[in-house]
Amino acid sequence: MMKRKFGFTLVELLAVVVIVAILTSVAMPQYRKSIRRAEATEALVNLRSVYDSAKRYKSANSTPPLKLAGLDVEFFDANVSDANTFLIGKFAYTFSNDGVQACRLNDGGYCFKFYYKHATHGKDALLCEVQNSSPTGTWLCGSLGTSKSGSYVLE
């Protein structure tokens, strides 16, 4: 009479655990990179909304806005920290006399800035600045048609 064996041996289970660990170690950095890119893209979309609203405000009032209040755009998760800065997610948005800027708060090292008027071209422009050679910032600046740190003229 033959005995039947049920279950797995310890070696087989360890082999599966090792394979899963290797796959996880390869997949996690790519996952984190895609999350950072998604957050930065969301910040760029939010910045464009604020910028467009700020341009409308400036044309109606002949002065640039210096705070979120009074603009025709709202964000349900905006956290207004002072007069000219507000937070959405992991980015701080700041108004200035020449444009609107979004900078990553932690571990990013990059900023996006929309100018009301660009001195060189006379058109609206986006400046993409990267500090500390941030891979995410470099990728986003490159996708906008800029170098590591440069301006992209909006049409």
Query: How much of the sequence is in beta strands?
Result: 15-25%
Order of helices and strands: HEEEEEEHE
Tally of strands = 7
Task: Report strand order across the widest sheet.
Answer: 1-2-3-4-5-6-7
Radius of gyration: 23 Å
* Poorly predicted runs of 5 or more residues: none
Structural shape: elongated
Q: Based on helices, strands and strand pairing, what is the structural class?
A: alpha+beta
Q: Can you put this structure into words, describing what you see?
A:
- The chain has one domain.
- A seven-stranded antiparallel β-sheet has the order 1-2-3-4-5-6-7, covered by helices on one side.
- Strand 1 and strand 2 form a beta hairpin.
- The model has no long low-confidence stretch (mean pLDDT 78).
- Helices cover 39% and strands 21% of the residues.
- Helix 1 packs across helix 2.
- With 155 residues, the protein is α+β, with helices and mostly antiparallel strands.
- The chain contains two helices and seven strands; from the N terminus they run H-E-E-E-E-E-E-H-E.
- It starts with 9 loop residues before the first helix and ends with a strand.
Which keywords apply here?
155 residues, alpha+beta, seven-stranded antiparallel β-sheet, 2 helices, 39% helix
Write the layout of secondary structure elements.
Elements (H helix, E strand, L loop, with lengths): L9 H52 L17 E2 L4 E4 L2 E5 L3 E6 L5 E6 L9 E6 L4 H9 L6 E4 L2
Antiparallel strand pairs: 1-2, 2-3, 3-4, 4-5, 5-6, 6-7
